[in-house]
Design brief:
Layout: H1 7-16, H2 20-33, H3 44-48, H4 54-57, H5 76-81, H6 88-91, H7 94-100
Length: 104
Amino acid sequence: MVLFMDTFDKTMTGLMKSAPAEIAKTITTLKNACICPGCPSYTGCAKNSQENLFCALGSSFYCIAQDKGCLCPGCPVVKQAGLTKDRYCIKGGEATQRYFQNVK
């Protein structure tokens, strides 16, 4: 049985097979490309807490609660990793939105 794997699935599968040092390097690279700090919903609290890369790391822990707009669709990380969701800072990362939002 062959399952369809889109770019996100392939990226995550490859990352899970990587050594911890390689994962950390990849996350640093993605954080450097991340445009979260320019988003209208991004707050000073998020900046002070060094929160970003919500698409991969999950929603803001407590700094972002109001949706004031979204830049996710134009983010190079979103395009590179084949992400399909948005508003990650509020709704959670790509994996959460894809696979766990409707789990009860």
